[in-house]
Amino acid sequence: MGKNAIRRGSRKAARIEQRRAEGVALASARNIRMSPLKVRRVVDLIRGKDYREALDILNFTPAIAAEPVRKVLESAAANAENNLSLGTDRLFVKTCFVDSGFSFKRMHPTTMGRARIIRRRTSHITVSLAERPRKTARG
Predict the structure, then answer these.
(1) Helices and strands (DSSP H and E) totals, the chain
(2) Contact (CB, 8 A) for 77 and 129
(3) For 91, 109, 118, 121, which has the most beta carbons within 10 A of its beta carbon?
């Protein structure tokens, strides 16, 4: 690491400190062997929901993509509880998104000696949880 990098500090450490100050817990799973379109259908179900409600939705969703999304959600809740000392009863899904990863390319023989490419797509799942603000009594 060079002199300037030491002086300015780590960008990753700065992002972690910023999330800690905001009270946002993040978890991600990379290179999941499922198509991003299929995983996005499941992620759209839990966006903006409370943590417990999102967990119930994922437990009863028959889609095969619900399992890795549930694991990432539970990991984010564990990060919130252990790293940020947040209670799981007030957490909600602040953001969740799915990005496409790399694609495995496979050849499939077709007629007249030709070949077609079959793409086995992968996904990156990211979930961030935050604490709901407390309701203040006016009056």
Answers:
(1) 5, 3
(2) yes
(3) 91
Contact residues for 63 (Cβ-Cβ < 8 A; gap 6+): 38, 41, 42
Domains of the chain: 21-131 (3.90.470.10)
**What's the rounded Cα separation, in Å, for the pair 52 and 87?**
12
Cα–Cα distance, 25 to 14 (Å, whole number): 15
Q: What angle do CA 56, 40, 72 make, to 5 degrees?
A: 50
Contacts of 83 (CB under 8 A, 6+ apart): 20, 25
Q: How far apart are CA 68 and CA 124, in angstroms?
A: 10
Tell me which residue of 132, 131, 128, 134 sits closest to 16, measured CA to CA: 128
Phi, psi for 98 (deg, rounded to 5): -125, 125
